[in-house]
Write a structure and sequence with these properties.
- The protein has 438 residues and is α/β, with parallel strands linked by helices.
- The chain has helices at residues 13-24, 26-33, 64-69, 85-95, 105-122, 138-145, 160-172, 176-186, 194-197, 200-214, 233-242, 303-323, 366-376, 406-417; strands spanning 4-9, 37-43, 59-61, 75-78, 100-102, 126-127, 151-157, 224-225, 244-254, 259-269, 281-288, 292-299, 351-361, 381-386, 394-401, 404-405, 427-431.
- The protein folds into 3 domains: 4-135 and 303-338, Rossmann fold (3-Layer(aba) Sandwich); 138-299, Dihydrodipicolinate Reductase, domain 2 (2-Layer Sandwich), CATH 3.30.360; 348-436, ACT domain (Alpha-Beta Plaits), CATH 3.30.70.260.
- Helix content is 37%, strand content 24%.
- Helix 13 packs antiparallel against helix 14 (406-417).
- The longest helix is centred in the C-terminal third of the chain and has 21 residues, at 303-323.
Length: 438
């Protein structure tokens, strides 16, 4: 094979980064792969946009089907995004026998079963390193480097927007809404930020990682998801007094006959490496029975970091084409006949430690009433802070509990909400700490 021809579908931010690397680093890539990787097509709805690239003999087209229908195109890179057109084009490319590279985490999390089954049936490679963690090689690490490990847990910061917001609240003590507006101005948050701040983007990534780590079919709908919009500077300040920082975490754990898969704001201790991952950076800790704990850290989004991950996939597939190898690696880490449907634990069955924040009337007996309700539901208090920050006659009361079951916690909080001494709905934040491990 003298040249490998590439068809790029979508030339937005990341697609432009992919084109930039293929054009400007072509000699470097060729020296590592062994043959030229030629960007034959770029398909995009906006062909007039200035991208600062000399496409030379690359064919620019607004017709993605032209790219897929050309038998001279060896590899398709999908950078369109979304769950409709992108899905149709990926399936069409796979059906035509072409390997596909995508960064489309939402598509894989929600429709991956169809796409992966089609790729397996056609004997076609499908690569998606850029779908999780930007330039962090988390998928390659799980699928290849940790092949001899039972993955006990994966805990990570997988959304740069949320990490930026929580870092700013922590450092500057300003509100969620204020930081969100600043993040939108800086380009770290979308005009509609719900996908990020509501935890959905992180959950898409956790769904993919859970499938790779545990050999289970992707089931996005079973993941518990909670966003960061209710976190206040007060909660972050209290967390600091207890020795914690607040991060939006993706948490996956092997529980034998079931797995945990949850996304929510979480308190982690100062000495946890993840607590010092700030700004738009991502990081994930993977715990295996052989390697113990490893940490991956890097830019989780952006034009060039994500494009770097796409080019990594491209090099792998190109090497497969050169050697005449297909299906060298199982698409989801496990061989298809070893994949199974592992149940995801309900959040109600999770047992962990909790931070509670109540607004209570400043009068005698308040603590005994609240603690009484907690005790009625088997929840033991580890520590309590009560400070005189009065607001409309109420003061914040915060508690950290010993290990408790989520279903008991929910019942207790519902009971506490009805107390005449409590003036607002309680807030809970779950805690991950070494002293709570089984």
């Amino acid at each position: 094979m003298k040249t490998i021809n590439i068809g790029l579908l979508g030339c937005g931010t990341v697609g432009t980064g992919v084109a930039k690397l293929l054009i400007e680093n072509r000699q470097l890539i060729q020296s590592r792969v062994g043959v030229p990787l030629h960007l034959k097509y770029v398909a995009d709805i906006d062909l007039e946009k200035a991208r600062g690239l000399d496409f030379q003999d690359t064919i620019l087209t607004s017709d993605a089907n032209q790219v897929i229908n050309d038998p001279q195109v060896d590899i398709i890179i999908e950078m369109i995004g979304g769950e409709t057109i992108a899905k149709d084009l990926i399936l069409k490319a796979i059906e035509s026998g072409r390997p596909v590279i995508t960064a489309n985490k939402a598509l894989l999390a929600k429709h991956g079963h169809v796409i992966f089954e089609t790729a397996h049936r056609k004997g076609v490679d499908l690569a998606f390193e850029a779908s999780v963690g930007g330039c962090m090689p988390i998928i390659k690490t799980i699928r290849e480097s940790l092949v001899g490990n039972h993955i006990k847990s994966m805990i990570g910061i997988l959304n740069g927007t949320c990490n930026y917001i929580l870092s700013k609240i922590t450092d500057e003590g300003i509100s969620f809404q204020t930081v969100l507006k600043e993040a939108q101005v800086e380009g770290y948050a979308e005009a509609d930020p719900s996908l990020d701040v509501d935890g959905l983007d992180t959950a898409h990534k956790l769904a993919i990682l859970s499938s790779l780590a545990y050999g289970t079919q992707i089931n996005f709908d079973d993941i518990y998801i909670e966003g960061i919009s209710q976190i206040t500077p007060m909660d972050i300040e209290f967390a600091g007094e207890f020795g914690y920082r607040v991060k939006l975490l993706a948490i996956g754990k092997d529980r034998g006959n079931a797995i945990e898969a949850r996304v929510h704001p979480t308190m982690i201790p100062f000495d946890n490496l993840l607590s010092n991952v700030n700004g738009t950076v991502n990081a994930v800790t993977v715990s295996g029975d052989a390697v113990q704990d490893i940490l991956l850290y890097g830019r989780g989004a952006g034009m060039m970091p994500t494009a770097s991950a796409v080019i990594s996939d491209l090099a792998d597939i190109a090497r497969n084409l050169i050697s005449g190898a297909t299906k060298r690696l199982p698409l989801l880490s496990f061989q298809p006949d070893s994949m199974r449907q592992i149940p995801v634990m309900s959040i109600d069955d999770i047992a962990t430690h909790y931070y509670f924040r109540f607004f209570a009337l400043d009068r005698p007996g308040v603590l005994s009433k609240i603690s009484g309700s907690l005790g009625n539901h088997n929840i033991s208090i580890k520590s309590v802070h009560q400070k005189g920050r009065k607001s409309n006659g109420s003061v914040p009361v915060v508690m950290v509990t010993h290990r408790a079951k989520e279903s008991d916690v929910k019942q207790a909080l519902r009971e506490i909400e009805t107390l005449d001494v409590v003036s607002a709905n309680p807030l809970l934040i779950r805690i991950e700490d070494e002293w709570q491990q089984d």
